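The authors assume throughout that readers already know how a fold can be written as discrete tokens. For illustration, here is how one protein appears when written out as sequence plus structure tokens.
>
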Amino acid sequence: MAEEKVKTKEQKVEKSLEQKVKSEKTDAQRIKEVYKLCKGHFGDVRFVGVKYHDKIGWIAKAQLGDDFENLSSDGKTSTDALKKLRSRVKKIIKRYNAV
């Protein structure tokens, strides 16, 4: 019976680790999500991407339309910058829908 409890505890730990791994997104998935948000709201999107700048750190940028309008955000990591960019886009969409 003690062995069964150990196995079930081990299984629970394995399941929780699997769920954590599944829930973590890659930067590519985050970029696709920001792209879909921008495409749905703004229409024309040229690109969404991330680059590293020596003085600032990581920069996430979404370039919209032919007028070279863009949204950008920075962060210590590329993931952090993408999260901030997604947040900015969502705030813009929320404000637009509130009016």
Observations:
- The helical segments are 2-23, 27-42, 78-98.
- The beta strands are 45-53, 57-64, 69-75.
